[in-house]
Amino acid sequence: MGSMRKTPAGLRADASPPPSRLLRRRVARLARAVRERRALELLYGGAWRVVHPHAIGRMGTGRIGLLTWQTAGLARGPGDPGEGWRMFDVARIGATRALRAHFAPRPRGGPAWTAGIGAPVAEVPSRDEALSAAPAEA
């Protein structure tokens, strides 16, 4: 976890070390998947999960997070169907595979729908924007 430091203006700023080259490449690939609305398989915590990535950026902890709607994979517990919003620490993702499938964004839960991510590097458009931009069926 990064330390905090004072800036000349007296504001506190994250002094996290810069991400490694591998992490920067992974962030770039994941950001592209977010912008393209491409479904992914992630290896995380030793299990594969199928996700729809909705946003990526720095979390309040200073780490880089990937906000997804998980559609299949490891559930959180016996009563959890395995589907739902999940935030993944990008540094802990073991592997990724882009799938051919694209997805329509999930409805947002309000203006702070990426509350865990301070400033997204990439995020999907709102569901209404994405559906209105889709080509008309012939």
From TrEMBL:
Domain of life: Bacteria
Record-given protein name: Uncharacterized protein
Lineage: Bacteria, Pseudomonadati, Pseudomonadota, Alphaproteobacteria, Acetobacterales
